[in-house]
Amino acid sequence: MKMKRCSKMPQKLWVPLAILALLCLPLTAFAADNGGGAQTKALTLVDCLKTGYDNSQDIKKAAKSVDVAWEGVKQAAGGFFPTLKYSLGYEKDSYNTVNYVPVDKSGTYWTWKEIDSGDQAFSGALTLSWTLYDGGKLTGNLKVAWLDLDSAKEDLRSAKQELTYNIKAYFYALWLAEQQLKVAQASYDNLQQHYEQVKKQFEVEKKAKYDLLKAEVAWKEEEPTLLSAKNSVKTAKLNLATAIGLGKQADVEISYGDAILQIPAQPEMNFQSLLDEAYQQRPEIRQSEQNIKISKWNRVIARAGYLPSLTLSGTSSNEGATSDYKEWDDKTWTLSVGMSGLIFDGPTTLSKIKEAKLNEQIATIKDTQERDTVRKDVQSAIQNIQQYYASVGVNQDNVALDQEALRMTQIKFDAGMATTLDVKDAQLSLDEAGDDYYQEIANYLNALAKLDYVLGKD
Question: For position 27, what pLDDT does the model report?
């Protein structure tokens, strides 16, 4: 009996277990696809930029500001349309309202009929109003709203350009940290190999114990440098991951080819042509020009305070003694055109006009200052590119020279003509040359990115 009952249990549970297994499959696949949140794909610079654009809160905020400015344009445009409003009324009196109407005339006198309107009244009306002319206020407000929208778009461009430059800088910083780690690792491995070589010579009594200890100390002294280089890589990864919105995946990997080391021939850079490009593309310059236009339109709006306004209005109303509007029988309508204007308001309107003029002058001054800043930025970017380009070539030659110096020192050491200190000094010189070489390449790449930024390239 027990065996028979046990044999039937799996059959009873088969269907729910199968359903449970099917439900678990998507979760398993999801976990496999996400790898527990670990970053597995090496990101190129293009990948980093795209990811940063998608995750940037600054870009999202700037995009929302564009949407807000667009709503402002709609509101300003709404002033050109007529407005239609309704009103409903109810009145309750403490006594009945009695009206008398003439119904017949017999001889000299009219016969009047008494009509009891009751003690309550219901009414409704539709009112149409349309501004035909206001001295230019509506036009000015619409122009300002369009300029505000353009300015918001420039804020969005600026946020994206700044993020582009920052991501490039962090990408190149990580590349530099990885190259300097390779230099530190190679130095550590080379001094370890030197120690092992001295150890073998010590074992056959070709080197003194002092030489062995000296080689071991030189090797061990490289450990802090190697650890510092590894920490620099971790920090650079964290900075890049944060910049592109992957802060929870700090162990980001980047992908780059050997082309990053192939510095092209120095391009011909014409300062005036680049400056003209910056004046046309920089968001700050565009916004300063927009601010000048906004100030001019604000002056138009202020001057409109002295000009008359012309308004068309119409009203259609009806009322009755009951709440059923179908029984209302007192229809009336009015159509009117009205003109109004300012005679005197003290110094208010005049002050607004003067304020608008002063703001226009301030905007012009700020535009001049902005152009001076852009000129300085372009000049500095060009000078940095020229400087770092020259430094890359010099440091590349230094690396080749120090590599040969280290090789010759090792040969001399094997021949007993050099000490461990000589080998270490040669290795340190090569390390410094390698670090400087990669540093100048990173500086050159950053200078190119900076030039794109100061030119306002999207």
Answer: 37
Write out the two tokens for 20: 């449970």
pTM: 0.80
- What is the spatial order of strands in the sheet that 109-133 belongs to? 83-106, 109-133, 309-320, 332-340
Cα three-residue angle 233-234-237, rounded to 5 degrees? 85
Distance CA 18, CA 35 (A): 26
Which residue's entry shows tokens 């003029």? 357
Q: Are 296 and 286 in contact (CB under 8 A)?
A: no
Partners of 88 in beta bridges: 124
For residue 125, being part of any structural domain is answered with no
What is the tens place of the pLDDT at every residue in 173-186? 999 999 999 999 99
| Residue 374 included in any domain | yes
Q: What is the CA radius of gyration of the chain?
A: 42
Task: Give the domain extent around 168.
Answer: 37-95+133-310+345-455
Structure tokens at 374: 């852009």
DSSP conformational letter for 43: B
Specify the DSSP class assigned to residue 326.
G
Q: What is the 3-state secondary structure (H, E, C) of 227-271?
A: HHHHHHHHHHHHHHHHHCCCCCCCCCCECCCHHHHCCCCCCCCCH
| Cβ-based neighbour number of residue 285 at 10 Å | 19
Q: How many domains does the chain have?
A: 1
Determine the average pLDDT of the residues in 186-205: 92
How far apart, in whole angstroms, are the C-alpha atoms of residue 61 and residue 53?
A: 12
Closest CA to 370 of 430, 303, 293, 285: 285
CATH code of the domain containing 47 = 1.20.1600.10
Q: What is the pLDDT of residues 422-431, one digit of tens each?
A: 998 999 999 9
DSSP state of 42: P
* Residue 153: how many other CB atoms lie within 10 Å: 19
Three-class secondary structure of residue 208 per DSSP:
coil
pLDDT-derived band at 90 (thresholds 50, 70, 90) equals confident
> Would you state the pLDDT for residue 147?
98
Place of tokens 């070709």: 206
* Buried-exposed string 328-353: b where 16+ CB fall within 10 A, e elsewhere: beeeeeeeeeeeeeeeeeeeebeebb
Specify the range with the lowest mean pLDDT, choosing from 165-179, 236-250, 298-312: 236-250
